[in-house]
């Protein structure tokens, strides 16, 4: 990817002076920064508002910088939403563990073992991702009601895993397909069975892919709102942070505590920021591409 | 599996080339083990996708309300739910809104995403960093994005109105979320903001796969920036465009969080899409689960049509798998 980029460098000598192209290059950077600043302005405004007092936020002229900032919003957010944050953490972690436990062996089988029905499974996994969440929520509500697991951590862990399992299988499979056959054959020659090979070789090699798939599974579950607001609406114990945030603004048209609303929004965004930092652009971009085109 | 065994034993008897033959036995075993490896996911798919889907279809033919939930009593009423749904004016509004929402989202997400992808396709300092920063809106929980835009567009304290007033573009604050047309514009803007990074990333990676020689040749032929884009980039990313638009369409059909958080489908049903309307029917207080399931099924049919087109596009173009 990087090599292709470098090779593609525009023939500056053909086009004209070196200094002119240097200026043009920096102009591009400046333009890029401006574009990003505009696109990310809403995020800046969220952070800015989260550090202001409600009196400041209610004034007709905006405070462009969080000067004279306060942590009141965060204090309120943590004291009122702490339980929801913990619930989200537990549910998202559970969904991630469940997703990887199911997806990793299947991905290995689809990538390296000639499992009967593998191709069909692959197509089904591609297609089920297209089922609208509201359809899943509607049906899961009836099913969970009949087995009486509505309003529990289990309900959301199971439901949230449905968001991530197909995605995780597809990206892990894409990665595991690239594991050299010779490596697995060598393990087989050493007497390792498929289970041992999977555990001792495939999983350790796939660490990065597992981390990426796991982070996305976590992010999907963390961001889920539809399942929470259908399956776990009538609980105080297992209400995730998305529902907590919605409760802040849900009914009213006249919201007076934008500071704690925005502080909660900032806190809810932290896993995304974490993902971006850890997974980095190559993994993230590559993974998205793999997952949607493979 | 069966034919492998004699082949293997024959080789052993012959005593020739043992190493390749030893790998035949594991291959046979692997086939069997392969089943064990995929069984958990197969069960999961059956229980958590296929069964709910089937359940939803059955539900759409039943008069299933809040009492049914407790009594388990839900009479079958044939196409009753579908007939009722299609004769409800609010549903017709939801269908029109869905078309507006999907078309508007796709058009702007794609054009802005394409513009950004083309821009970041050029190499310049900071390009990779800026590109990854642009991903943030796509990674945020949708509830956060909806809440954020609700704050930006707040009538009295929202920064958008404050800027418009300062620039004297409007005389009075715009009640973005409280009037029908501006509410649709508001949810569209938020959804476009969320979707641009996805379009940009996929289109950008499609552009990365274009051989550099094509640009060099075009450049030597005297093609300018625009001509290179028009005659090299666009034709080369054709398949990726198909994928991005199809996926965008399917994702946009499902959008729930953004609309629900910003407007709850209001004012006066102005921002209800089929998705939010289906939710409203099932969970909005009246517990019309059968009716909601019928709306959901219609949504599946639309999504399925595009899913088929999507799979066909993938199969037709091996290059897109790169």
Automatic annotation (TrEMBL), chain A:
Domain ABC transmembrane type-1: 85-279
Subcellular location: Cell membrane
Gene Ontology CC: one annotated term: plasma membrane
Top-level taxon in the UniProt lineage: Bacteria
Bilayer topology annotation: Multi-pass membrane protein
Keyword terms: Cell membrane, Membrane, Transmembrane, Transmembrane helix, Transport
SUPFAM superfamilies: MetI-like (SSF161098)
GO biological process entries: transmembrane transport
Entry's transmembrane regions: 21-45, 85-110, 122-143, 149-172, 209-228, 261-279
Keyword DNA-binding assigned: no
Pfam families found in the cross-reference section: BPD_transp_1
Family assignment from sequence similarity: Belongs to the binding-protein-dependent transport system permease family.
Protein's UniProt name: Carbohydrate ABC transporter permease
TrEMBL record, chain B:
Location in the cell: Cell membrane
Taxonomy of the source species: Bacteria, Bacillati, Actinomycetota, Actinomycetes, Kitasatosporales
PANTHER family linked to this entry: BLR7065 PROTEIN, SPERMIDINE_PUTRESCINE TRANSPORT SYSTEM PERMEASE PROTEIN
Predominant cellular place of this UniProt entry's protein: membrane
Protein's membrane topology: Multi-pass membrane protein
Origin: domain of life: Bacteria
Keywords: Cell membrane, Membrane, Transmembrane, Transmembrane helix, Transport
Species: Streptomyces platensis
Name this polypeptide is given: Lactose transport system permease protein LacF
């Amino acid at each position: 990817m990087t090599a292709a980029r470098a090779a593609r460098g525009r023939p500056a000598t053909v086009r004209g002076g070196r200094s002119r192209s240097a200026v043009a290059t920096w102009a591009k950077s400046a333009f890029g920064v401006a574009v990003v600043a505009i696109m990310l302005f809403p995020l800046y405004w969220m952070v800015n508002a989260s550090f202001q007092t409600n009196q400041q936020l209610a004034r007709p002229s905006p405070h462009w910088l969080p000067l004279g900032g306060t942590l009141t919003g965060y204090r309120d957010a943590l004291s009122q939403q702490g339980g929801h944050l913990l619930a989200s953490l537990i549910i998202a972690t559970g969904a991630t563990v469940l997703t990887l436990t199911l997806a990793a062996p299947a991905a290995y089988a689809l990538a390296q073992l000639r499992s009967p029905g593998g191709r069909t499974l692959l197509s089904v996994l591609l297609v089920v991702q297209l089922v609208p969440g509201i359809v899943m929520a509607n049906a899961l509500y009836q099913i969970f009601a009949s087995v009486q697991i509505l309003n529990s951590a289990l309900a959301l862990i199971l439901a949230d895993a449905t968001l991530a399992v197909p995605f995780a299988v597809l990206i892990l499979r894409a990665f595991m397909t690239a594991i050299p056959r010779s490596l697995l054959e060598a393990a087989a020659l050493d007497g390792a069975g498929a289970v041992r090979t999977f555990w001792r070789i495939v999983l350790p090699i796939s660490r990065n892919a597992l981390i990426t798939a796991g982070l996305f599974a976590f992010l999907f579950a963390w961001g889920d709102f539809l399942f929470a607001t259908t399956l776990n609406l009538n609980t105080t114990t297992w209400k995730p942070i998305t529902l907590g945030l919605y409760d802040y603004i849900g009914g009213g048209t006249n919201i007076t505590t934008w500071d704690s609303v925005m502080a909660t929004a900032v806190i809810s965004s932290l896993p995304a920021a974490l993902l971006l930092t850890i997974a980095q652009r190559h993994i993230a971009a590559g993974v998205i591409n793999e997952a949607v085109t493979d | 599996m069966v034919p492998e065994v004699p082949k293997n034993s024959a080789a052993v008897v012959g005593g020739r080339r043992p190493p390749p033959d030893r790998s035949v036995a594991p291959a046979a075993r692997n086939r069997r083990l392969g089943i064990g490896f995929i069984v958990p996911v197969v069960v999961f798919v059956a229980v958590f996708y296929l069964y709910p889907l089937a359940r939803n279809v059955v539900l759409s033919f039943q008069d299933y309300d809040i009492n049914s939930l407790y009594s388990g009593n839900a009479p079958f009423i044939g196409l009753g739910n579908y007939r009722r749904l299609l004769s409800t004016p609010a549903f017709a509004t939801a269908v029109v809104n869905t078309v507006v929402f999907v078309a508007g989202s796709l058009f702007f997400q794609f054009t802005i995403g394409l513009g950004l992808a083309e821009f970041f396709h050029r190499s310049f300092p900071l390009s990779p960093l800026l590109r990854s920063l642009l991903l943030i809106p796509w990674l945020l929980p949708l509830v956060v994005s909806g809440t954020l835009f609700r704050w930006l567009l707040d009538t009295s304290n929202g920064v958008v109105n404050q800027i418009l007033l300062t620039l004297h573009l409007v005389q009075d604050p715009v009640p973005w979320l409280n009037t029908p047309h501006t509410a649709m514009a508001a949810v569209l803007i938020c959804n476009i903001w969320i979707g641009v990074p996805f379009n940009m990333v996929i289109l950008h990676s499609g552009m990365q796969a274009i051989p550099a020689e094509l640009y060099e040749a075009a450049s030597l032929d005297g093609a300018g920036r625009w001509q290179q884009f028009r005659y090299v980039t666009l034709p080369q990313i054709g398949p990726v465009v198909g994928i991005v638009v199809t996926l965008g369409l399917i994702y946009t059909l499902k959008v729930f969080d953004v609309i629900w958080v910003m407007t709850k489908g209001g004012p006066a049903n102005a921002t209800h899409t089929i998705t939010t309307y289906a939710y409203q029917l099932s969970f909005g207080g009246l517990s019309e689960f059968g009716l909601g399931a019928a709306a959901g099924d219609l949504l599946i049919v639309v999504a399925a049509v595009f899913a088929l087109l999507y799979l066909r596009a993938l199969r037709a173009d091996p290059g897109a798998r790169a």
